[in-house]
Amino acid sequence: MSKYIFVTGGVVSSVGKGITVASIGTILKSRQISVTAQKLDPYLNVDPGTMSPYQHGEVFVTQDGAETDLDLGNYERFIDVNLTTESSVTSGQIYSHVIAKERRGDFLGGTIQVVPHVTSEIKDRFKKLAEKSKADVVIIEVGGTVGDIEGLPFLEAARQMRNEVGRDNILYVHVTLLPYLNSTKELKTKPTQHSVNELRRIGIQPDIIVCRSDYPISEEIRNKISLFCDVERKAVIPLTTVSTIYQVPLVLEEEGLGELIINKMKLKPQPPDLSQWQELVKLIKTPREPVKIALVGKYVELQDAYFSVREALQHAILYHSRDLELVWVPSETLENDGDDSVLRTVQGIIVPGGFGIRGIEGMVRAANYARENKIPYLGLCLGMHVMVIEFGRYALGSKEANSTEFNADTPYPVIDFLPDQKGQKIKGGTMRLGNYPCKLVDGSRAAKAYGQSLIEERHRHRYEFNNEYRERLEKAGMVYSGLSPDGRLVEVCEVADHPWMLACQFHPEFGSRPGHPHPLFRDFIGAAKDILREGAQPPLPLSSQY
Ligand code: GLN
Fold first, then answer.
1. Less crowded by CB within 10 Å, the N or C end of the chain?
2. Residue 536 pLDDT > 80, yes or no?
3. What are the phi and psi torsion angles at 4 (to 5°)?
4. Distance from C-alpha of 193 to C-alpha of 502, rounded to nearest angstrom
């Protein structure tokens, strides 16, 4: 039977609850204890798929096609598991499910209430994931902050679980922030006390409190939290801000969190082995020569919108023992002859995913720059559409080549709906989502990168390469290096006469892991790292002559 760890958050949001969940997973996994994770999101959207990246950051897609919160990406990267739909639960899903059951008459005329009907539905989700994953420990992050109205049913369900599975099989971890007062130069524990009180009022006594702070946490503060919040002294775990998220498991381990969880939950572990993480952090902290990459996107003001892309670049950079100098370029600034001087300084250009017309012409300009100046280019989903539009304009000799997403009346719809998709109107749940197979063409850059001919990658899009233009673009030098097994869909394409210009219809960034960079990111950085740009100097050969 699986055991459960519930992780709640106090005081403010964005204190790093997701990274704490992911790190607890790492610590347990390093002891050969199998883990999985689940995120409970209190909002009423059924999934974050239709939310703006500005509101919600990146939408992370699981292999089985769920559109989820970006925290799931961190769980996958830290725990190195591929999660499924069951790992993402929102209030919207729960309520719509309960109401659908009521409409069907499943409750036989009963009055439907938050307790027990909604809470039972929530508990079913916990148990379903436990059953499906067969993990020793299911770690569940309760989204939002304790005290939020919307989060109450989730907390109530978490509370009820204690009696169902027994005290040894459940653990409550509360992550809080200790604010620093500049005037008195001290960390304050009162907000933590209040949020623990709030939890207790709901019936949950935390077993462990993880204290986030930008400043060192003294013994005195730990004692105080232990006393006022009624938590063992060793169960007050300080987590001061570190320079890389990949250090968090190491910090928590050092503070004894691993042992504490093992003892409290009576788990049977192997000795911990975090050497891979130690090496990773050591490498991150070693000075390395930078590679300058431009990320040309439409949501760059909120960098969380590209969370997995940035992480995948990091993994690839570390593989090459280099440092990432990432320049965030808002694509709109490149439009209407805007200043493109930044492109002249970068060694690679990446155009990530996105929706809607805003900023598209700026991305097309970046792709044009990459093609004409032979700068490595990686296009991800929308980034492939952009590359095809740019190449289409060149190959067809018309500025009007476009995707019907951006110009429904273009005479050259190089990207379009497939004939069987036409007429779709609903926005939620109408995309091609999750893993689809793709056959790679021998000798292509894509095949070289993957080192295999059949791959599966995660998708999230509506529009496709328009097959009517395949031949004409091919004649001008486009290579279709990855196709769906039936040959109908273009999944990967490349520009032949170019050092490395490749784009894919899927999202490779979701599959990249620290220590195992995604092959396309790895080879993109591999090509970019040796490019010399304006102002850069090749090392001068040392000669005795001078
Ligand atoms: N907007 C494009 C489509 O719907 C690309 C989507 C994406 O980049 N994820 O097909």
1. C
2. no
3. -125, 135
4. 53
Across 42-56, 61-75, 232-246, least confident range:
42-56
Render pLDDT for 406-453 as a digit per residue (tens, 0 to 9): 999 999 999 998 766 665 555 555 789 999 999 999 999 999 999 999
Cα 67 to middle of ligand 1, angstroms:
13
Active site residues: 381, 507, 509
Mean per-residue pLDDT for 453-459?
96
Whole-number Å distance, alpha carbon 381 to ligand 1 midpoint, is: 6
Distance 453 CA to ligand 1 centre (A): 25
Cα–Cα dist 417/423, whole Å: 9
At residue 546 the predicted structure's pLDDT band, cuts being 50, 70 and 90, is very low
Hey, what are 316's tokens?
A: 């690839």
Q: Which residues contact 243 (CB under 8 A, 6 or more apart)?
A: 284, 285
How many angstroms is it from 345 CA to the middle of ligand 1? 28
User: Is the CB of 432 within 6 Å of ligand 1?
Assistant: no
Q: Is 9 in the pocket of ligand 1 (CB under 6 A)?
A: no
Ligand 1 atom nearest residue 380's Cα: 8
359 lines ligand 1 (CB under 6 A): no
Distance in angstroms (rounded) separating the CA atoms of residues 133 and 127: 10
Write out pLDDT tens, residues 118-168: 999 999 999 999 999 999 999 999 998 998 999 999 999 999 999 999 999
Cβ partners under 8 Å of residue 506, min gap 6: 381, 436, 438, 457, 458, 459, 491
% residues pLDDT > 70 (the chain): 96
Which helix (DSSP H) or strand (DSSP E) does residue 194 occupy? helix 190-202
Alpha carbon of 514 to ligand 1 centroid (Å):
26
Phi, psi of 516 (to 5 degrees): -135, 75
Strands 186-187 and 180-181: antiparallel
pLDDT above 80: residue 254 = yes
The answer to whether the CB of 354 is under 6 A from ligand 1 is yes
Assigned token pair, 305: 């919108």
Burial of 58 per CB tally in 10 Å (0-12, 13-18, 19+): buried
Pocket of ligand 1 contains residue 461 by CB under 6 Å: yes
What does the pLDDT read at residue 109? 79
What's the confidence (pLDDT) of residue 94? 96
422 Cβ neighbours under 8 A, 6+ residues apart: none
Residues 6+ apart with CB under 8 A from 474: 480
Q: Give the model confidence (pLDDT) of 348-367 as tens digits.
A: 999 999 999 999 999 999 99
Two tokens, residue 148: 């939020």
Ligand 1 close to Cβ of residue 463 (< 6 A): yes
Evaluate if residue 507 carries a pLDDT over 50.
Answer: yes
- CA angle, 130 then 131 then 134, to 5°: 75
For residue 383, the ligand 1 atom closest to its alpha carbon is 8
Q: For residues 93 and 101, what is the distance between their CA atoms, to the nearest angstrom?
A: 12
